[in-house]
Write a structure and sequence with these properties.
By secondary structure, the protein is an alpha+beta fold. It is built from six helices and four strands. It has a four-stranded mixed sheet with strand order 2-1-3-4. The longest helix has 95 residues. The radius of gyration is 45 Å and the shape is rod-shaped. The termini are far apart.
């Protein structure tokens, strides 16, 4: 009898010990799960916060780039508009000049280039082909007779598609080693390049220069 009671007590002790061990195992597992869940939640929260910060930075950068692009686009559009108005104003002025004045400008331009070639010894003495546009044959002969030796040049009428649709007088001298272009259009472009600031201020006021993008 005593042996049975002792066995029963031992059995209960074993069960109690197993229960306690199981409890500890389950408690440890629960704590591990809880710690893992908290760590995962923190990690997820940090990732979300980092993503939001990165997104906010990207949005800010894009906004700044857009602002800068809008400013540049505004300046470009304004510059193109001013450029068009300058060219239109210059063209209107040139169209208001009489024929003699236009040809005088053309002749002076040609003379300046020929003088530079004479000084350097590069001026050809013969075999010069002359293309011309918006210039009559008699006008061409009058201009070249005082600039080049007689018989040193040959005219090619009809501009051969070389000068295109220029609306102002132009002359091109082609020699084996040099080419000379004298045109009212070239003079206009040089004036616009050299005197742009003065022209802008004259036509649109000094504030146009201060705002930028006009020159």
């Amino acid at each position: 009898m005593e042996e049975l009671q002792s066995a029963e007590v031992l059995h209960r002790e074993i069960l109690e010990d197993a229960r306690k061990k199981a409890y500890r195992i389950l408690k440890t597992a629960d704590e591990s799960v809880q710690a893992g869940a908290e760590a995962w939640e923190k990690k997820t929260g940090d990732a979300i916060r980092e993503a939001r910060e990165l997104y906010a930075k990207r949005v800010f950068i894009l906004q700044e780039e857009l602002k800068a692009r809008l400013v540049l686009d505004k300046q470009r559009i304004r510059s193109e508009k001013i450029e068009g108005l300058l060219k239109s104003a210059m063209e209107t002025y040139l169209l208001s000049l009489n024929r003699e004045t236009l040809l005088s400008i053309l002749e002076r331009t040609l003379h300046k280039q020929l003088e530079e070639l004479r000084e350097t010894g590069e001026l050809p003495g013969s075999d010069i082909k002359v293309r011309y546009n918006k210039v009559a044959d008699t006008e061409l002969e009058d201009i070249l007779s005082g600039q080049l030796p007689k018989g040193s040049w040959t005219k090619i009428p009809g501009n051969a598609g070389f000068i295109g649709e220029a609306i102002f007088p132009a002359i091109i001298l082609d020699a084996p080693a040099v080419r000379i272009l004298a045109s009212i259009q070239a003079v206009t472009e040089n004036v616009l390049e050299d005197k742009r600031a003065e022209l802008v201020a004259s036509l649109f006021g000094e504030e146009a220069l201060l705002e930028g993008g006009a020159v």
